[in-house]
Amino acid sequence: QKEVEQNSGPLSVPEGAIASLNCTYSDRVSQSFFWYRQYSGKSPELIMSIYSNGDKEDGRFTAQLNKASQYVSLLIRDSQPSDSATYLCAVNMNSGGYQKVTFGTGTKLQVIP
Amino acid sequence: DAGVIQSPRHEVTEMGQEVTLRCKLISGHNSLFWYRQTMMRGLELLIYFNNNVPIDDSGMPEDRFSAKMPNASFSTLKIQPSEPRDSAVYFCASSRDGNSYEQYFGPGTRLTVT
User: Bridge partners of B75?
Assistant: First the structure.
């Protein structure tokens, strides 16, 4: 089982719809969770961090965390073509005795005008 | 505030040559991370420093790779000798403190080894 799993996509949604991106992780004691957006040919950009169970909203973005189910998601409301990118889930977890942030392989989102 | 600075942005070299990648942290940050990204393997952590000390280098692929942090704001990643399979985008990221905080990435260095 991968430590951080994401569906690679592509996930296609029409402009104005809600895009829902999902991520599961293997370490039950993980405490820090991050979503990064990466445009093609660019570096990952941090867009959301979440540390507690429940929802965290920032503009059109909502991160949802459920530690019992080891599941974190990112909702993008009113999706725009400019949201088309790969979204990376990252989880702080214990690996080989160290705390380190492990990235998923990313979900490619395509917003269709 | 300036973000993470990396140089060079692009590097093309021949197999067997030494390659040095450079990174400058965001002012006030004390943790630095080197990543490699390829289509096949995604984003891989190579090494991370906290307060200039290497904390986890388990991701360094082999002895051809070495990283240093000679001062609190600057790091180098060296590959000697380089091989075609080292071709990738290398990112440097910094954070305020260790691995519990948000990481901010530099623009990356695209390395091509022919």
Answer: B23
Q: CB-based contacts of B63: which residues, under 8 Å, 6+ apart?
A: none
Provide the pLDDT for residue B100: 61
Tens-place pLDDT, residues B62-110: 899 999 999 999 999 999 999 999 999 999 999 987 656 789 999 999 9
Which candidate in B90, B100, B109, B110 is best for mutational testing of the A interface (most A CBs within 10 A)? B100
Interchain proximity A101–B45, CB inside 8 Å: yes
Q: Which residue has the tokens 């420093």?
A: B49
Tokens of B2: 């300036």
Contact B58 A98 (CB under 8 A): yes
CA B56, chain centre distance (Å):
13
Please report, as a single letter, which amino acid is at residue B46: L
Task: Name the phi and psi angles at A83, rounded to 5.
Answer: -80, -10
A35: tokens are 């979503």
Q: A98 contacts in B (CB within 8 Å)?
A: 55-56, 58, 99
Q: What is the pLDDT of residues A32-87, one digit of tens each?
A: 999 999 999 999 999 999 999 999 999 999 999 999 999 999 999 999 999 999 99
Taking the Cβ of residue A5 and every Cβ of chain B, the question of whether any pair is shorter than 8 Å is answered with: no
